[in-house]
Amino acid sequence: LLFLSCIFQMDTTQESYLDLFPLDAIVYLTPDSENVLEDIDPDKVYVLGGLVDESIHKKLTLQRAQEQSLQTARLPIREYMVKTFNTKNYHSETLAINQVFDVLSTYYETQSWPAALKAGVSSGKGYVLPDAVK
C-alpha cells in the first residue's frame, strides 16, 4: 500500500502502516466509505487502498479498514460530479491509485474539489463536472 503524509511526502515500505502511525491519524481511502473527504488534514496519513486485479471487489477495502478499526473516507465524486450518458451505462467511483493521487495532490494545491476531480477522474468513469454536460 502507498501512504501519503502531508500529501507530498510519499514513502513505500514493507512495514505495516498500522505499526508506523497511530490509528487515529490514519484515514483509509475507499470508494465504499459512507464518509466524504471534505478537506485534507496535514496531521493525518491517507492510505490509498488498492488492489492489483482486473476485477473490482466491492467493499473489500472498506472491510479491511473496518477490521483494522480505521477511519475511512471517499472522494467527493457524487457531491461534485454528475453521471453522464455513455453507451455502456457505466459509472464507477473506483479509481486507480495514480488517479486518487492526482485528485489529492491537485486538491492540496488548489483547494478546489472540482479542479481536483477534473484532474483525476477520467470521463471513462461515467462522471463529469456539471459544467461539462451539454
Automatic annotation (TrEMBL):
Its EC number is 2.1.1.221. Keywords: Methyltransferase, S-adenosyl-L-methionine, Transferase. One of its GO terms (biological process) is tRNA N1-guanine methylation. GO terms for cellular component: nucleoplasm. Gene3D superfamilies: 3.40.1280.30. InterPro entries: MT_TRM10-typ (IPR028564), MT_TRM10-typ_sf (IPR038459), tRNA_m1G_MeTrfase_euk (IPR007356). Residues 1-128 form the SAM-dependent MTase TRM10-type domain. It catalyses: guanosine(9) in tRNA + S-adenosyl-L-methionine = N(1)-methylguanosine(9) in tRNA + S-adenosyl-L-homocysteine + H(+). One of its GO terms (molecular function) is tRNA (guanosine(9)-N1)-methyltransferase activity. This is tRNA (guanine(9)-N(1))-methyltransferase. It comes from Nyctibius bracteatus (Rufous potoo).
